[in-house]
Amino acid sequence: MYFCNLKCYYIYKNMKQASESSNKRTRLYVLLSALLVVVVAAVTSYYICSKAMAAERHARYAGIMNIAAERLAKTISGLEMNAMNEFDEVEKHLDSPDAVIAALESKANLNPEVRGYFAAFEPDYFPEKGKWFEPYVHHVDSNAFEVRLVGNVRHNYFKSPWYVRAKQSRESFWSEPYYYYDGTNISGHYTTFVKPVFDKAGRLACICGADLTFEWLTKELRRIDDSIKQNELLNSHLFGSDSDFYSVVLHKDGSSIAFPEGKKVAITEEYVIRDLEHGKAGTIDMDINGVPSTVYYGPIERVDWSVAVIVAKK
Question: What is each CA distance from 232 to 11, 71, 227, 228, 308, in whole angstroms?
């Protein structure tokens, strides 16, 4: 009887230990399952949140890029209108060289953004002026301007790309960026709004132009950036703070035309170059001066350039 009771005791004890062990395993499985659910939920939440942050970031900076492009286009359109008024004055005063110069001077001081206006005449249009006659009214500073005759054998404007293109197309356009040097204070990097002007007989009289400097374009870009950064609505963040940004103007070959000091951008990727050439918008991740960044780029209406917003990645 004693051995029977002892046997039953050990059987009971083993069953109890097995039950407790089973309960521990069950609790462990429940704990691990709960932990797995928490981890999955956390990973899912992180994934969803990161996607939402990326989408919000993309929408914000793509929007800022579009706003910068629109404001640049509006400014450029205004410059074109002012230039057209100047060119119309020249067209009305083709009677004599002096009348042309007076027409150029009449409105030059009304548009300080333009470095200078010129009228490059066809060879011997005014016989007394010879082959080259190109009066140029340019600003010396914000309040003063002067007149110079810049056409000569050294500056044979008949071979200049803008002159050849205007003569062939008979349309107005913005020239390719270029560097002009003559050893004077008007030397520098320019882009020019060009328009052919015809006399009453329908003959090409001259090619008129309004010069803009890269320095002015850089200042205008900085003014637009500052205006956007001060706009609370444009800089509202759904997911906290984000990186700072700056803008550059890109040529269709990927080089920078206007950019903040020390922040020049050069893009060489072929698909981006194709986008710039065809006036398409897009993004690219790349190192800018050693900083991993995202570049949001898009076309500027009326010109063959694009604006790009550069944002450091975090």
Answer: 77, 18, 10, 8, 21
d(C-alpha 172, C-alpha 162), whole Å: 10
Q: Are 177 and 256 in contact (CB under 8 A)?
A: no
Which of these ranges, 59-68, 137-146, 208-217, has the smallest mean pLDDT? 137-146
Q: How many CB atoms lie within 10 A of CB 242?
A: 16
Tokens representing residue 258 in the block: 């206007």
Q: Is 163 helix (H, G, I), strand (E, B) or coil?
A: helix
Q: What pLDDT sits at residue 289? A: 85
Side chain identity, residue 101: I
Helices within 170-240 (DSSP H only): 214-229
Average pLDDT over residues 144-166: 90
Contact predicate 297/283, CB 8 Å: yes
Residues sharing a CB contact under 8 Å with residue 94, sequence separation 6 or more, in sequence order: 100, 197, 199, 200, 205
With a CB cutoff of 8 Å and minimum separation 6, the contacts of 257 are: 177, 191, 214, 217, 248, 249, 250, 251, 305
> Within its chain, how far is the Cα of 192 from the centroid?
18
Instruction: Give the neighbor-by-neighbor strand order of the sheet with 291-299.
Output: 256-258, 245-250, 306-312, 291-299, 282-288
Tokens describing residue 38:
């928490």
Nearest to 66 by CA among 303, 312, 276, 299: 299
Q: What is the mean pLDDT of residues 11-37?
A: 65
Q: Are 179 and 165 in contact (CB under 8 A)?
A: no
Burial of 15 (0-12, 13-18, 19+ CB in 10 A): exposed
More confident residue, 31 or 176: 176
Task: Give the pLDDT of residue 47.
Answer: 57
